[in-house]
């Protein structure tokens, strides 16, 4: 063994203790940490870009990283990071994630680990949490992007099957073009169309309802009626990233009775609302979808990277993702045969953090996070609407705000960008830019388990200050 490896093996308990100290220090300072480190702090030293011939051992490497670069880490896991849709880590999920790396299990139905059984149990508990029926199966993937990829891939296979074609075997050329219809497909679904050979151009935008991001069912029906027999997939939004708008799922299901299409529901963050009796009506009908995406690293507050794809078409999923080799177990149709159901081969024990969080906090713990975030999002919305210089671009439907600056001189987008840059410098709250209804807007998405009333007060103060400083 290389002497550095031997030294670290001998000193492993000390290395882990030291890592624990660094982690504790980071978490203790998370509330005060700037939400967004200055660009200068995000620069790497030249020597750290170059491979070393001899290493310095784990302790020296850890300290070197921490001393140089800890200030370059954002507070994205903290309570006032409202950019994108960014969750944090509950204690149980964090502890479990440490064990995932420590135990380094391969979750693919090998008969030498409990990992796949726990993954299956986690999926079953999620179905209970989110009121999904027994005929769904699911698996963990790295994020909602891959969950959308898997759902669309199974849909592609289903569209082939309707015409006697096995797309996974024969290729998409045997089927020909697919039309993909959506009012507000997330960009990751568009990316998936590219990756799956369906093509980004296959997406046809359907009109939205007036003053809403939800799909106009009448416009969709007109399109379906005008394209009879065309292999069709509909990508529904169950929570758009701009305004947390939900498509009318019962309306889509009624159309599917008359115009058979694959219905994929992207519920990356919005699906978690199903755990609350207050908001589960938003997901009404998703039990009949063909495939569903739910992120775990957003509103379920487990570490990156974790999401779940659900489907009611397990056999088709195996047709797409089966993985034959003499050295691997043959595909048999079972819901925990992950090697034959997911894009990966070897797989991290990704389910453990969520399994642990559900064990630690239960249905009511998840529900409390969701309901608190929604209440606080509304509070922030009221605060902004009542503040000079801000206005909401859309109602606060759930946990996301979409707002704009008012009373600005000159170009709106430039003013918005100055404001956001100032907000980042201030370091108290992070928001990110968007466009809504043709105007430059600002998003704030609340999904972190630690966010409380005082964070809303701090965020509002910072936003008002930065507005007057930047405009
Ligand atoms: C975040 C998000 C995605 C992409 O998710 P990743 O986990 O970042 O891959 C897809 N769809 C929606 C609606 C999202 O909010």
Automatic annotation (TrEMBL):
<protein>
    <submittedName>
        <fullName>Aspartate aminotransferase family protein</fullName>
    </submittedName>
</protein>
<dbReference type="GO" id="GO:0019752">
    <property type="term" value="P:carboxylic acid metabolic process"/>
</dbReference>
<dbReference type="InterPro" id="IPR015422">
    <property type="entry name" value="PyrdxlP-dep_Trfase_small"/>
</dbReference>
<dbReference type="InterPro" id="IPR002129">
    <property type="entry name" value="PyrdxlP-dep_de-COase"/>
</dbReference>
<dbReference type="GO" id="GO:0008483">
    <property type="term" value="F:transaminase activity"/>
</dbReference>
<dbReference type="GO" id="GO:0016831">
    <property type="term" value="F:carboxy-lyase activity"/>
</dbReference>
<dbReference type="InterPro" id="IPR015421">
    <property type="entry name" value="PyrdxlP-dep_Trfase_major"/>
</dbReference>
<dbReference type="GO" id="GO:0030170">
    <property type="term" value="F:pyridoxal phosphate binding"/>
</dbReference>
<keyword id="KW-0032">Aminotransferase</keyword>
<comment type="similarity">
    <text>Belongs to the group II decarboxylase family.</text>
</comment>
<keyword id="KW-0663">Pyridoxal phosphate</keyword>
<feature type="modified residue" description="N6-(pyridoxal phosphate)lysine">
    <location>
        <position position="298"/>
    </location>
</feature>
<keyword id="KW-0456">Lyase</keyword>
<dbReference type="InterPro" id="IPR010977">
    <property type="entry name" value="Aromatic_deC"/>
</dbReference>
<dbReference type="InterPro" id="IPR015424">
    <property type="entry name" value="PyrdxlP-dep_Trfase"/>
</dbReference>
<dbReference type="Pfam" id="PF00282">
    <property type="entry name" value="Pyridoxal_deC"/>
</dbReference>
<dbReference type="GO" id="GO:0006520">
    <property type="term" value="P:amino acid metabolic process"/>
</dbReference>
<keyword id="KW-0808">Transferase</keyword>
<keyword id="KW-0210">Decarboxylase</keyword>
């Amino acid at each position: 063994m290389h002497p550095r490896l031997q030294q670290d093996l001998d000193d492993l308990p000390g290395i882990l203790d030291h890592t624990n100290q660094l982690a504790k220090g980071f978490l203790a300072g998370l509330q005060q940490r700037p939400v967004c480190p200055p660009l200068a702090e995000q620069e790497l030293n030249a020597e750290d870009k170059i491979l070393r011939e001899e290493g310095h051992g784990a302790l020296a490497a850890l300290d070197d990283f921490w001393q140089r670069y800890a200030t370059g880490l954002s507070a994205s896991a903290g309570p006032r990071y409202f950019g994108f849709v960014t969750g944090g880590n509950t204690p149980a999920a964090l502890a479990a994630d440490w064990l995932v790396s420590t135990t380094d299990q391969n979750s693919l139905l090998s008969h030498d680990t409990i990992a796949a059984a726990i993954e299956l149990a986690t999926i079953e508990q999620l179905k209970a949490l989110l009121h999904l029926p027994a005929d769904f199966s699911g698996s963990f993937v790295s994020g909602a992007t891959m969950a959308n990829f898997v759902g669309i891939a199974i849909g592609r296979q289903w569209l082939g099957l309707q015409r006697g074609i096995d797309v996974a075997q024969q290729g998409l050329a045997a089927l020909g073009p697919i039309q993909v219809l959506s009012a507000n497909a997330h960009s990751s679904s568009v990316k998936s169309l590219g990756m799956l050979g369906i093509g980004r151009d296959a997406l046809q935008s359907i009109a939205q309802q007036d003053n809403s991001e939800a799909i106009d069912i009448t416009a969709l029906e007109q399109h379906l009626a005008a394209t009879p027999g065309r292999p069709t997939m509909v990508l529904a939004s169950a929570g758009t990233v701009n305004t947390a708008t939900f498509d009318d799922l019962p309306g889509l299901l009624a159309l599917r009775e008359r115009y058979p299409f694959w219905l994929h529901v992207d519920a990356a963050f919005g699906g978690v609302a199903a755990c609350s009796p207050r908001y589960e009506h938003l997901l009404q009908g998703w039990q009949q979808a063909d495939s569903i995406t739910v992120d775990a690293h957003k509103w379920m507050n487990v570490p990156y990277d974790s999401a779940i794809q659900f489907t009611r078409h397990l056999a088709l999923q195996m047709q797409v993702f089966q993985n034959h080799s003499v050295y691997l177990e043959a595909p048999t149709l079972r819901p925990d045969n992950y090697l034959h159901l997911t894009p990966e081969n070897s797989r991290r024990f990704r389910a453990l953090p969520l399994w642990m969080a559900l064990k630690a906090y239960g249905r009511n713990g998840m529900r409390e996070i969701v309901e608190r975030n929604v209440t606080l999002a509304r509070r922030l919305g009221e605060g902004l609407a009542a503040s000079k210089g801000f206005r909401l671009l859309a109602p606060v439907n759930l946990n996301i705000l979409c707002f704009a600056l008012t009373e600005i001189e000159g170009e709106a987008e430039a003013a918005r960008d100055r404001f956001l840059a100032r907000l980042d410098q201030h370091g108290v709250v992070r928001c990110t830019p968007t466009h809504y209804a043709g105007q430059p807007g600002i998003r704030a998405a609340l999904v972190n388990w630690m966010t409380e009333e005082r964070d809303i007060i701090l965020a509002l103060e910072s936003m008002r200050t930065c507005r007057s400083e930047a405009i």
